[in-house]
Design goal:
alpha+beta; Butyryl-CoA Dehydrogenase, subunit A, domain 2; Butyryl-CoA Dehydrogenase, subunit A, domain 3; 6-stranded mixed β-sheet; globular; binds glutaryl-coenzyme A; binds flavin-adenine dinucleotide
Length: 664
């Protein structure tokens, strides 16, 4: 009897269908753009140098065989994933000359995306938190030793803070570091089961050092959480006596990273292993406090800022995939006709599809761009703090980084999910890249400060400002100046074509101000009959709403301001519409806040809705070109659906062919 043709034969037959050249629909979309792509890309990346560097780094990675993947990573088991990521990591760090390693915001993350993909790996925490901790918390005169060892990978570290029992509430961490003045050592200990460290990346198998957050005890007194440099494994990589360490098992995503657990049994480290840049323990046990109580949390502030940019780029990439796919989705499976007899349409032409895609695309621009200038703010603040001269900016930076982190990671995760749904069934396949993107992004809602906890930190800052404004003697940080402006009674928003940036900003500021003061009044009323913490808890939902609105207002203002800097008129026109779409979509989603007390009339709200529909139609012809303006290569995107050439179906067949189930 004749044997059925194997899956491989079948695939081979279909492979002949692979189109030569780009999908014609996507080509047509590109030809119809109203702006010059290069000009727009230069705007998005701030200058042509950054754009050129992206290309150079891509060419470098593509020309080095050690970065190749012999088997597609989607088809690997966890051990193989970890092996792959480790192999890639080594190749990556062996070739660091290819990038400017100090460019944490652009070159370093791009290089990692190109070499490894969207996976945290055994060195993620080493570079992402251990090195920054050394940089931020080591005294200048001592920094060279540990920094060079860590930078040269002589030691591999992680950041071990979270415990089984406590993650958000740092003041209740249970691991202890007790100073023994007789031996001039700290004794690191895990006194209870819930004190075991749990989650640190790279801890399970890879790291031999950790920056450990522990409660400091000296001269019999508790001094709160402090950071210590602790060796965990010996030269043969075995755990040192007094250290129990291992992997915590598989997670929703990031499974190439060996997140681990860590238990100490009266483990001794030298006194100098405390990070003593800000607070100190002298040899006799005398404690010198830091100039600001929260300076010990400085590395987290820096990493939150880094996360914002990284996460926003994920949303940008997800939008690129969904928009390109929506432009080519019609040749094999048509979804219906808009005008009968005129032939079926690309799914990109459905208004509902545009509503799914374009607000997400808009959302991906402001935060990524804003982060470039936040980078300089954080450098400025770090410099001020390093000089021990100025601590005034610290609360502002903490509030801003916490708020942006919380709002952006949430919007990115929700946005990726929305974009995944917009691709129908194929969005559910890992070939699309959405599942991996979502798993990566949604982790960011929890780590580096759980989002609600971070929003409540912003709310503390806002309530403090509200109190100052009410007292009539405010000394306000730049981002909070609008809170002291006089009340506005009615909204200025009108048609998207006629309303100015100032009108939009006016309305956002007014609504946020009302929300902040309404919450402040509720809080102070409750405080008359409740303990402070109970009152805070009772209105914490409103506190979070005010915090979110404050961050969104900040993002709207900055998006509009950034668009004004665009020198190319055609690019500026499109970006301006996108910025207005972003603002109108936020108003539409937060209609309740805007319409409260009749601030925004029903007529104005209808204009906002209508404006959104009209803007979707206006941006539609430019949507593929706007996606291209992210200048993301196929290697970086790692999505069969989002391929630049639009040849999705043959590529899906090719991808599936690699499944181990098809090998026999
Ligand atoms: C929530 C807080 C901020 C609360 O701080 P607290 O000292 O415990 O509470 P409190 O005594 O009520 O103090 C609040 C006060 O401390 C201030 N503050 C707090 N943090 C900072 C800062 N960084 N800079 C400047 N100021 C700061 C706040 O503004 C408050 O000030 P205020 O009292 O209102 O004037 C803190 O516990 C915290 O940061 N928790 C989150 C823990 C976290 O982020 N863990 C990250 C672990 S590492 C990780 O997840 C790595 C993943 C990386 C990866 O996989 O890529
Ligand atoms: C992928 C991943 C990687 C990680 N990597 C590391 C790492 O490398 N190093 C490390 O030290 N940690 C790491 N973590 C741990 C992470 O930092 C913590 O999970 C995070 O800080 C949240 O703490 P938690 O898990 O204790 O949550 P919890 O604080 O227990 O939060 C649970 C719920 O309680 C709520 N809640 C908590 N406190 C308050 C409050 N005061 N008011 C209102 N609501 C509150 C939260 O909003 C949330 O809904 C990682 C976590 C993940 C998921």
């Amino acid at each position: 009897m004749e044997r059925d043709s194997s899956p491989s034969d079948q695939f081979h037959r279909y492979k002949n269908l692979i189109q030569n050249g780009d999908n014609p629909d996507i080509t047509k979309e590109r030809q119809g753009a109203s702006f010059n792509l290069y000009n727009m890309q230069c705007f998005v990346y701030e200058n042509d140098h950054k754009l050129q560097r992206r290309q150079e780094i891509l060419e470098f990675v593509e020309s080095h065989r050690e970065f190749d993947d012999p088997v597609h990573p989607h088809f690997l088991n966890r051990d193989e994933q970890i092996d792959r990521a480790t192999r890639k990591c080594l190749a990556m760090v062996d070739n660091l000359d290819a990038i400017d390693v100090t460019d944490y915001f652009d070159e370093a993350p791009l290089y990692q995306l190109l070499t490894i993909g969207r996976e945290l790996h055994c060195l993620s925490l080493h570079y992402g938190m251990f090195l920054p901790t050394i940089q931020v918390h080591t005294e200048k005169s001592l920094i060279l030793g540990p920094f060079q060892m860590a930078a040269s990978k002589a030691i591999l570290g992680t950041f071990a803070q979270t415990e089984l029992g406590h993650g958000s509430n740092l003041s209740k961490l249970e691991t202890t570091a007790t100073y023994d003045a007789t031996t001039k050592e700290f004794v690191i200990h895990t006194p209870t089961m819930s004190a075991g460290k749990w989650w640190p990346g790279g801890l399970g198998k890879s790291a031999n050092y950790a920056a450990v957050m522990a409660q400091l005890y000296t001269s019999g007194e508790s001094k709160g959480p402090h950071l210590f440099m602790v060796q965990l494994r010996d030269n043969a990589h075995a755990p040192l006596p007094g250290v129990t360490v291992g992997d915590i098992g598989p997670k929703l995503g990031n499974n190439a990273n060996d997140n681990g657990f860590l238990i100490f049994d009266h483990y001794r480290i030298p006194r100098r292993n405390m990070f003593m840049k800000y607070s100190k323990v002298e040899a006799d046990g005398t404690y010198i406090p830091p100039p600001h109580a929260k300076l010990g949390f400085g590395a987290m502030v820096l990493v939150r800022l880094l996360m914002i940019r990284d996460q926003t780029c994920q949303l940008g990439a997800a939008a690129v995939i969904a928009i390109r796919y929506s432009a080519v989705r019609h040749s094999a499976v048509r979804q219906g006709e808009i005008n009968e007899g005129e032939g079926e349409v690309q799914i990109l032409d459905y208004r509902t599809q545009q509503y799914r895609l374009l607000p997400q695309l808009a959302r991906s621009f402001p935060s990524s761009q804003r982060m470039r200038s936040r980078n300089s703010t954080s450098k400025y603040v770090t410099k001020q703090i390093n000089n021990n001269a100025n601590m005034e900016l610290l609360p502002e930076l903490h509030a801003l980084s916490s708020g942006l982190k919380a709002v952006i990671t949430w919007e990115v995760a929700q946005g990726i999910e929305q974009l995944r749904l917009s691709c129908g069934g194929h969005g559910y396949s890992r070939a699309s890249a959405f599942p991996d993107m979502y798993a990566y992004a949604v982790g960011g809602c929890t780590y580096e400060g759980e989002n609600i906890v971070m929003l409540l930190q912003v709310a503390r800052f806002l309530m403090m400002i509200a109190k100052e404004v009410r007292s009539g003697n405010p000394k306000l940080a730049e981002i909070a100046e609008y809170i002291a402006k006089p009340d506005a009674v009615t909204a200025r928003i009108s048609s998207w074509k006629t309303c100015s940036d100032e009108d939009i900003i006016h309305d956002f500021e007014a609504v946020t101000r009302k929300l902040i003061f309404a919450t402040f009044d509720r809080l102070t009323t409750l405080e008359r009959t409740m303990k402070k913490k109970e009152a805070w808890n009772a209105c914490s939902i409103d506190l979070c709403k005010a915090a979110r609105m404050h961050v969104k207002t900040y993002l709207v203002k900055n998006f509009l301001a950034r668009v004004r800097t665009c020198e190319d008129p055609a690019s500026r026109t499109v970006m301006h519409t996108l910025a207005k779409l972003y603002a109108f979509d936020l108003i539409s989603g937060g209609g309740g806040h805007f319409m409260k007390g009749g601030f925004l009339s029903e007529k104005q709200f209808n204009e906002v809705q209508l404006g959104i529909y009209e803007m979707l139609a206006a941006i539609r012809p430019d949507s593929v070109a706007l996606a291209d303006s992210w200048a993301i290569s196929d290697l970086e995107l790692r999505s069969v659906l989002g391929r630049r050439d639009g040849n999705v179906y043959p590529a899906l067949l090719e991808w599936a062919q690699q499944s181990p189930l098809n090998q026999n």
